[in-house]
Amino acid sequence: MAPYEPVTQEILAQLEAIAPGRVTAGEDVNPDYGRDEMPIYGVHMPEAAVEVLSTEEAAAVVKLCYDHNIPVTTRGAGTGLVGGCVPLYGGVVLVTTRMNRILDYDLENFTVTVQPGVLLQQLAEDALSHGCLYPPDPGEKLATLGGNVSTNASGMRGVKYGATRDYVKAMTVVLPTGEVTRFGSSVSKTSSGYNLLQLMIGSEGTLGVITELTLKLIPAPAAIVSLVVPFENLADCISTVPKLRQSGLNPQAIEFFEKEILITSEAYLEKQVFPRVVEGTQVGAYLLITFDGDSEAALEPVIETAAELLLEAGALDVLVADTPPKLKEAWAARSSFLDGIEEQTDLLDECDVVVPVTKIPDYVLFADQLAQRYDFRLQYFGHAGDGNLHIYTCSNDMEREEFLRQVDDFMSQLYAKTMELGGQISGEHGIGRGKVKYLAQAVGPTNLALMQGIKQVFDPKGILNPGKVCPTA
Questions:
Q1: What does the radius of gyration of the chain's CA atoms come to, in whole angstroms?
Q2: What's the rounded Cα separation, in Å, for the pair 274 and 379?
Q3: Residue 467, by phi and psi: left (phi above 0), alpha (psi -120 to 50) or beta?
Q4: 327 in Cβ contact with 226 (< 8 Å)
Q5: Which of 93, 183, 235, 266 is least enclosed by beta carbons within 10 angstroms?
Q6: How far apart are alpha carbons 106 and 186 in whole angstroms?
Q7: Helix or strand run (H / E) with residue 254
Q8: Which residues is 321 bridged to in the sheet?
Q9: Which of 312, 337, 362 delimits the end of a domain?
Q10: Partners of 278 in the beta sheet?
Q11: Residues 159 and 212 both lie in one domain
Q12: pLDDT band at residue 361 using 50, 70 and 90 as cut-offs
């Protein structure tokens, strides 16, 4: 990877010609463009930022940077948690948030075409107005769809509906050379060569810039019911999940969390939603389970069977949230976990490992016991239905360097345990900058070399989001 060139006044003038009035440089660049939601991985400001409005503008910016060997980091809403959109080498930040239009619905084929800056929440609400559901449901509803696809962030409904990559039919991509191409199509299946579409999904902006997406929709369920299920302890809580998965009841989502993180979230919301004591017993952990179906009547026997199973497995109670206000309250508390942690924590790092569902109890017990050797505290929750666990290391009184040292040691052992159990080091947050070392350790030299070879083919000059996922230097 050759040394990068600076963004000169001449380059700024050419960028301004491409995107008039939407170029900033130096001290005028939005300070947020130097970080994401996890600044523990460092803050690095770009030399310039360009807000693009179209594929053509994005292509012109990327080609200019390619010709002059200037790094380009694509940025959406900046809600990532691994330093993925941080411009480590300066250069240009390509901002896609103003490419925020829902372009077209094809309701006969259940697809929607969008620009990458459309927010997850925006599409979710608009699709419902058309009688459709876009199933991917990450906790951060203000993330952009381009960012979601770039990290394959799938969220809470994965247990029933699968991952984000299952809902991407096609995309328009600007390659590092500035060439524009299209991967995929609206058809339902393909055996037509290497699947470049799937290669782009989860590539975190290192192979190309996504400027348009065609996404799969499904008919919106007519009825949704959530169950709030308190347990006395975490072990009983999590050990119930495999039984629920094997029951044939097909839940839409199964979330687990401990009492401590719930208290953090409810303090942030200034509202208590979940019970802390049930018939004199202190609650230690919770499941939040959602079912959907064609009608409320069709869900009634499902809820009854689930309640019987949960109570037999040790649940203290089964509380039904079957009205819009109750559903909103329950899921607002769950969706605010990270916001609550961030508000009340000075030093924060995280991982989002995936392990087999049956191994969740063993893994959480291991993490708890391991954390006792360190000075930070753990907070965690997860998509228990698909084994994706979010584990946060938190401190308000450690020195930053000591925190980083201890967290690195902790994470190294945690990821080793993940691989031992047959898991993966990220389920939806991606690798970005923060997990580069751990990915290399996890996949081994052969697979890492293959990834680096793919990067070289797509981006021979290494200008797109350098230093992320599988850097060669």
A1: 23
A2: 18
A3: left
A4: yes
A5: 235
A6: 10
A7: strand 253-258
A8: 226
A9: 337
A10: 281
A11: yes
A12: confident
The answer to whether 285 and 233 are in contact (CB under 8 A) is yes
Would you say residue 390 lies in a domain?
A: yes
The Cα–Cα gap between 438 and 428 comes to: 15
Residue 165 lies in a domain: yes
**Token pair belonging to 152:** 């394959």
Q: Please state, in angstroms and rounded to a whole number, the distance separating the CA atoms of residues 67 and 61.
A: 10
Task: Give the chain's domain count.
Answer: 3
CA distance 62 to 210: 12
Q: Is 451 helix (H, G, I), strand (E, B) or coil?
A: helix
Rounded CA separation 51/117 (Å): 11
**Backbone phi, psi, residue 289, to 5°:** -120, 135
Owning domain of residue 400: 345-420
Using CA of residue 338, residue 341, residue 343, residue 347, what is the dihedral sign? negative
Q: Is 148 exposed, middle or buried (0-12, 13-18, 19+ CB in 10 A)?
A: buried
What residues have CB less than 8 Å from 39, skipping those under 6 apart? none
* Cα–Cα separations (whole angstroms), residue 84 to 148, 336, 466: 12, 22, 10
Q: How many CB atoms lie within 10 A of CB 180?
A: 19
DSSP 267: H
**Which residue is it, tokens 């959530």?**
226
d(CA 273, CA 163) in angstroms, rounded, equals 29
Rounded distance between C-alpha atoms, residue 126 and residue 281, angstroms = 43
Largest CA distance in the chain: 72
State phi, psi for 157 to the nearest 5 degrees.
Answer: -90, 10
| Length in residues, the chain | 473
Q: Strand 72-75 to strand 285-293: parallel, antiparallel, or no bridges (unpaired)? A: unpaired
Q: Averaged over 109-130, what is the pLDDT?
A: 97
Residue with tokens 């975490």: 234
Residue 412 in contact with residue 385, Cβ under 8 Å?
no
Res 1: pLDDT: 54
Same domain, 330 and 386: no
The 3-state DSSP composition of the chain as helix, strand, coil percent (nearest 5) reads 40, 25, 40
% residues pLDDT > 90 (the chain): 85
The one-letter code for the residue type at 279 is: E
For 228, the token pair is 């709030």
**pLDDT tens column, 244-277:** 989 999 999 999 999 988 888 888 888 888 999 9
CATH of the domain at 252: 3.30.70.2190
Q: Please, what is the average pLDDT of the chain?
A: 95
